[in-house]
UniProtKB/TrEMBL annotation:
Positions of the Electron transfer flavoprotein alpha/beta-subunit N-terminal domain: 164-396
InterPro entries: DHS-like_NAD/FAD-binding_dom (IPR029035), ETF_a/b_N (IPR014730), ETF_a/FixB (IPR001308), ETF_asu_C (IPR014731), Rossmann-like_a/b/a_fold (IPR014729)
Swiss-Prot/TrEMBL GO biological process terms: fatty acid beta-oxidation using acyl-CoA dehydrogenase
Compositionally biased intervals (Basic and acidic residues): 98-116, 136-150
Family to which this protein belongs: Belongs to the ETF alpha-subunit/FixB family.
Annotated Acidic residues bias: 118-130
Protein name per its UniProtKB record: Electron transfer flavoprotein alpha/beta-subunit N-terminal domain-containing protein
Disordered: region residues: 98-150
Pfam families, alphabetized: ETF (PF01012), ETF_alpha (PF00766)
């Protein structure tokens, strides 16, 4: 008998409970109880999805010699073959893929691994061929090379890097939810990191703004070991140059490139951070790119997953010799949907001879990680970072601006009503109907698909204020996990699925019964949103939505 009887709970209550169950047998017992009792399709789907996830985690050690490739995604194949060092096994995999699914990308992954392994085998017993290195200013002397004013680009090889730095964004005087989510994930990552590598590295929270000091206790409660903050009334609104200058000055303090007077500080004694994490909000995206560029490193943007582990690399540009391979330690693996929109890619930021790529940086889609429980008993070190700000950074003065009263953080709502290109026949009315449904719920807000954001629709003034990038759900927008997610006129591309797939219940409204969104929805209402949304609104207002969904169960 499982600890949880699903028939005694509503689906909104089951979602968070099931996420903590890692025993597939217990989940199967729950499924049997549900089938023998309430037999609710969305509840069974929820349990079945969890079983699949748990079993996929248990099957992490896949035997490449016996695995059925048709059961694996291209991403699974890529993850599997990177640990295979036997060229014959890889050739067998390639032949089986050709005879079965015959996926171009999967074959490319296997062929690439064969090339890597055979290159290594051929190099054994032979002198490795070192890749010739020519400094960029010598290789292209006719160019005004961009590294000329950044002499540290090749002067930091083998420098010391430590800690994970988290930029904690605030809006309207409040610490935004994604900042808390990132701190919780950073805490989890660095706890595991310190255990795996026998280190004592920290989670460092960075606060910049007019009221930065007000949030120090909060960021410690959510996981920070050290808080470095700079407060100035001129920083009430986000500004590109001063925010970038302040963050980078903090990051270099106590290192080889520290500003004058900050060569030695008592809270940091390394060159630059090992990892940096930013929110993938409008301001966070800007700041992450500017900071990583100034620190001469790379950035993986709009990530939805992070983990740290070693990586075996055979790229000659990274290992320095053709046909050789090298294991890089402590690599931050940054997962994001790839540009094809069909698979996930894992981005790595790897050093190479004569060039360090640190910090390893990522921006994180809001809602990607669970909100941690704050512990206000935690203690942490606090640094009030003093720095003179150049008046030239504030030449442009913002005299007047408007702010939406409700804000656009969708991650904390019980219900999200999202609309897509299905509003095209009458965009203004489509938004109006969605807002009517939002108002019918106690705690709901409006979301949009990327198709609406990038369209050339014309909206009347009274709804135009709601059509902003901040409301976008998906790969390059917010990632939400409400109790109920209503997707009206949204086809369900992988980019959008990323943003809503963890919702407890997904209700899709679409004229196409075979739309992609059907594959990950609990309910599909076949119909025109202009007809269905008013009915849903009425059903919510009269308390009949549950009965309406039961009637639509098939």
């Amino acid at each position: 008998m499982p600890d949880i009887d699903p028939t005694e709970h509503e689906i909104a209550e089951l979602g968070p409970k099931i996420k903590d169950i890692d025993d597939a047998d217990e989940l199967r017992a729950m499924l049997e109880l549900e089938e023998a009792g309430e037999d609710r399709v969305p509840v069974k789907t929820l349990i079945e999805d969890r079983i699949e996830k748990v079993e996929s985690e248990d099957d992490g050690d896949i035997d490449p010699e016996t695995v059925d490739l048709s059961d694996l995604t291209v991403a699974d194949v890529a993850n599997m073959v990177r640990d295979v060092d036997d060229a014959d096994v890889l050739r067998d995999l390639l032949e089986r893929e050709k005879a079965g699914e015959d996926r171009k990308t999967a074959k490319s992954q296997i062929e690439g691994r064969i090339e890597s392994v055979e290159g290594t085998e051929e190099a054994e017993g032979e002198e490795a061929t070192e890749v010739e290195y020519v400094p960029p200013e010598e290789k292209y002397p006719e160019l005004d090379h961009p590294t000329n004013d950044k002499q540290w680009v090749e002067g930091t090889v083998g420098a010391e890097y430590r800690d994970m730095w988290v930029y904690c964004e605030t809006q309207a005087g409040e610490l935004v939810d994604v900042s808390k989510e990132m701190l919780g994930k950073a805490r989890e990552l660095m706890d595991s990191y310190n255990e795996d590598y026998d280190e004592d590295e920290r989670v460092v929270a960075v606060l910049i703004g007019a009221d930065a000091g007000d949030h120090v206790e909060d960021v410690i409660a959510y996981g920070a070991d050290l808080v470095v903050y700079h407060e100035d009334p001129r920083l009430e609104r986000f500004r590109h140059q001063p925010y970038t200058e302040i963050f980078c000055d903090m990051a270099r303090a106590g290192g080889d490139l520290a500003a004058k007077g900050r060569e030695e500080v008592d809270w940091k004694a390394y060159h630059e951070p090992r990892y940096t994490v930013f929110p993938a909000t409008n301001n966070g995206r800007d700041l992450s790119a500017l900071v990583q560029g100034e620190l001469d490193s790379g950035l993986a943007s709009d990530c939805s997953g992070l983990y740290i582990e070693n990586a075996m690399i055979s790229n000659p540009a990274k290992v320095g010799t053709a046909g050789d391979k090298k294991e890089f330690e402590r690599v931050l693996h940054m997962k994001r949907p790839d540009f094809s929109g069909f698979e996930y890619s894992t981005i790595l930021c790897i050093d190479k001879p004569h060039r360090d790529f640190h910090p390893q940086g990522a921006s994180v889609i809001p809602g990607s990680f669970e909100m941690p429980d704050p512990d206000f008993e935690r203690e942490g070190e606090v640094v009030d970072y003093e720095m003179e700000l150049d008046d030239d950074w504030f030449k442009v003065e913002v005299e007047e601006y408007d702010r939406l009263s409700g804000g656009v953080d969708l991650t904390g709502n019980d219900v999200v009503v999202a609309v897509g290109r299905g509003i095209g026949d009458d965009p203004t009315e489509g938004i109006e109907l969605a807002l009517d449904l939002v108002d019918a719920f106690d705690d709901a807000d409006l979301g949009l698909s990327r198709g609406v954001i990038t369209s050339s629709y014309s909206f009347d003034g009274h709804v135009e204020q709601y059509v902003t990038e901040e409301r976008q759900i998906g790969e390059s927008g917010q990632e939400v996990e409400p109790d109920v997610y209503i997707a009206a006129g949204i086809s369900g591309a992988i980019q959008h699925k990323v943003g809503c797939d963890e919702s407890d219940t997904i209700i899709a409204v679409n004229t196409d019964p075979d739309a992609d969104i059907r594959d990950f929805s609990d309910y599909l209402i076949e119909g025109d949103l202009f007809e269905v949304l008013p009915q849903l609104t009425e059903a919510v207002e009269t308390g009949e939505l549950g009965a309406m969904m039961e009637a639509s169960d098939d």
